Amino acid sequence: MGVGIGLERNLDFMPHLVVGQLSGGVQVNEYLETGTSNVWAAGDVARYPDPFSGRKRIGGNWSGAFMQGRTAGFNMTGSKERFKTISVYSIGHLGLNITFIGDIGPFAKGDISVSKGFAFASGEKNEYVRISTKDNRVTGAVLINGQSFLGIINQAIMNKWDISSIFKKSI
């Protein structure tokens, strides 16, 4: 069993930058710039365009926030670097190694999205992998004891591989 508490952002001090109460966050572009000149946002507050899933999202993990801060920092000094890091979060819980990579959905109503999953045992290590796709492209995955798949899934997301040929019918 796992329980996620989540977080609540206090954005009261910058109401002119907040996107909306339901979605929350500060809207940024691919350079992490807000709509206000010389203001960038990163981390739990930034609603950024995910170049891999095509959705606007808020990342909620330390590594993503770190990479956003790096990108925003470079851009504050005059660089023009796009944020294009795939979010990865891992945790060990009850003897399981659980990893979330990329955007695992759910996608907005009206989007065509199918999650394909498969489970199998490998020796004494039970592994489960659930892959999220959109338009025949991998957008993310949940791995339980399946970290050996992390590299190939990362490549599939990063390079936007068309995976329709892997399955008999289009996913």
TrEMBL record:
Cofactor: FAD
Keyword Transferase: no
Database matches in InterPro entries: FAD-bd_OxRdtase, FAD/NAD-bd_sf, FAD/NAD-linked_Rdtase_dimer_sf
Entry keyword annotation includes Chloroplast: no
Keywords from the named record: FAD, Flavoprotein
Gene3D superfamilies attached to this UniProt entry: 3.30.390.30, FAD/NAD(P)-binding domain
Transmembrane segments: none
Protein name from the UniProt record: FAD/NAD(P)-binding domain-containing protein
